[in-house]
Amino acid sequence: MGTGRDWDSFFDFLCNLNPAVKNAIINNSLAVCCKVAASKKYKATGCRIHSVSYFITQGGQKGMVRIEGLQKLTLLDYPERVACTVFTGGCNFCCPFCHNGDLLPIKDTVGQWSEAQLLEFLHKRRSILDGVCITGGEPLLQKELPVLLRQIKTLGYQIKLDTNGSFPDRLEQLVAEGLVDYVAMDIKNSLERYPETTGCMVSVLGPVKRSVDFLLQGKVPYEFRTTVVWELHDGQSMLAISQWISGAQRYFLQGFADSEHVVRKGLHGYTAAELEQLRQCMLPLLPTAKLRGIA
Question: How far apart are CA 194 and CA 136, in angstroms?
Fold first, then answer.
């Protein structure tokens, strides 16, 4: 987006989101604000940029989603889409097998990427990408997420949301508003072993069950998935999962591989043959069960 015409187009996009952008600077993105200020259409408004730190307002809310990373291209994270993956910061779970341990702390700080930088990237990639995967951490921790998703939708993207299911009200809101096109919910374990697997109290089970029940209604395309770990999952727990989510559109057993980024070191994954045995046990109640990420 190097030409004046490109930046005029981007300025049009921002103003269509909210005219208040004419008097603001975008989430600490000096490069963007300077180029917007240089556009002919900005100068024609007679407005003057007055601060390097500001926010885009929409409906009176600040756009403050904490974005900690961006994978600029993925053919795996969003089924049947050429997508990018946005990593939000903070999670209310502490799963010992999580590979994104650096994203877990819940902090009231600015992320590595501003919303404006993300929107600028998405604007430039419209001819290449057609999907955006929002993952974490736990994205639904971000109260301002709907504002950002509306902006992404304005650019014409399909949106996939990854979630642990602990915020059913927010999930239902996003679906009702048409802000997500596909949901991937982690089924961490059988309900009996959820506290052990997530590091959370039993109180989380109610919200998680509500999210499962909501997705099973089929109001949005979805998948359930479980990362299977030797120390946490066994045949009994996997059978309990198949009973719990019986009738699911899609369900994936995912292999686990230890790495330096895992929250708890020394965990072990199942072999491909062992995972297949677990899948076979689940098929009578969950015929959609498949393996994913198995070497």
Answer: 19
Place of tokens 């209310």: 92
**pLDDT, tens digit, for every residue of 158-168?**
999 999 999 99
Q: How far apart are CA 112 and CA 87, in angstroms?
A: 10
**Alpha-carbon span 123 to 55, nearest angstrom:** 18
Backbone angles phi, psi at 84, to 5 degrees: -120, 165
The two tokens of residue 276 are: 């297949």
- Alpha-carbon gap, residue 67 to 142, rounded angstroms: 10
- Give the CATH number of domain 63-292; options: 3.60.21.10, 3.90.1150.10, 3.30.450.40, 3.20.20.70: 3.20.20.70
Which DSSP symbol is given to 225?
E
Tens of pLDDT along 228-254? 999 999 999 999 999 999 999 999 999
**DSSP letter at 50?**
-
C-alpha distances out from residue 230 to 65, 108, 194, 259, Å = 35, 35, 15, 15
Which residue ranges make up each domain of the chain?
Answer: 4-58, 63-292
Task: Find out whether 95 and 197 touch, Cβ atoms under 8 Å.
Answer: yes
Q: Mind listing the pLDDT tens digit for each residue in 116-147?
A: 999 999 999 999 999 999 998 899 999 999 99
Residue 101 and residue 262 in contact, taking contact as beta carbons nearer than 8 Å = yes
Distant-in-sequence, close-in-space partners of 208: CB < 8 Å, separation ≥ 6: 164, 165, 166, 194
Give the burial class of 19: count Cβ atoms within 10 A of its Cβ; 0-12 exposed, 13-18 middle, 19 or more buried. Answer: exposed
In the numeric block, which tokens belong to residue 224? 């359930």
Model-level pTM?
0.78
Alpha helix (H) residue ranges in the chain: 4-17, 30-38, 40-45, 115-124, 145-154, 168-176, 194-198, 205-216, 235-244, 272-282
